[in-house]
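JOB MANIFEST
job_type = single_chain_structure
chain_count = 1
residues = 393
[input]
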Amino acid sequence: MSENWNIRTKLVHKGSRRSQYGELSEAIFLTQGFVYDSAEQAEKRFQDLGEDEYIYARYGNPTTRMFEDRIAALEGAEDAFATASGMAAVNGALMALLKAGDHVVSSRALFGSCLYVLEDVLARFGVEITLVDGRDLAAWEAAIRPDTAAVFLESVSNPTLEVIDLKAVCDLAHAQGALVVVDNVFATPIYSYALKCGADLVVYSTTKHVDGQGRCLGGVVLGKRELIRGPVEAYLKHTGGAMSPFNAWVMLKSMETMDLRVRAQSATALAMAEALEGHPALNTVAYPQLPSHPQHDLAMQQMGIGGTVLTIDVKGGKDAAFKFLNALEIFTISNNFADAKSIVTHPATTTHQRLPDAQKAEIGITPGLIRVSCGLEDSTDLIADLLAGLDSI
């Protein structure tokens, strides 16, 4: 019956485990290890770990397992492995599947750290990387080969908000026997569609919308049990990428309000994008729910909404962008997003600063580009703050 629960009910109840004390709130099992009744029991547990049995927090923990079960139920995944951060999830998913000599095709419009994992880390270990324009299905088809082991992409790119036809890319990859790994953070677990489109593994930075309140790092890899409890778990538990029990507890409690928060933030983002579009101080406003967005129809088909983040491109480049940022009163300048506090980021000098100028230009990171993450403040106050900032330039 619980499989038919709606999102908000799942976010409050799924995965719950109660101890013999019958606590109402989920318990924090803040322990690194576990004890055994006998040497024989210890031997058996190391040989064949049963359901709800644990040996070491790097391998698993009751609090962490509650979080994994809850987010897997929300996503419609068979299983999940919680990680120390979003990048631990990205790195773990890719490293678990790949070996020297493998070929990976990825969209080129990616978060800076994702590009680093692909171009520096994996390439250093002998994995061949091909980057393509994620919006161009012909480019995907030409790049994916019979020896392609995996395809990686952000369903909505960070920060340029390019939307990829996920089902079409999954079909192309699977036709050649490649697995598909999707960073789905901009789509959010609330509006997620990656597994429905055929993705084999989905990764999130749970630092973002799951916690969504600026407190804890976290990540998660979701997908079929044979992948999660096979290569993904084996890699992450032996290399130390597991989430801490305390952070798992914070994520659990945050999930109770995530649907409310994300829907409110998305409504604010749409109001903000509509208010800013056409402003004389801006070259562009990019938000998937705006009809002017190049992939608007695809975004509405896949996600049904624009999400919590938009971008603006300020006329006058870096100097004008900095003047605008420094004039804001409510917005916080930071490199995070999807927080209860509204945040502005200048990607060219922060999250993507290490990229050569030519590569920035190729993926749309202009000197005037600003990523705007909508929080939980009053939308009219936020819009007034942005308009006043634009007036200052």
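[summary]
Residues 245-276 form the longest helix (32 residues).
The chain has two domains: 2-254, 257-391.
exit_status = 0
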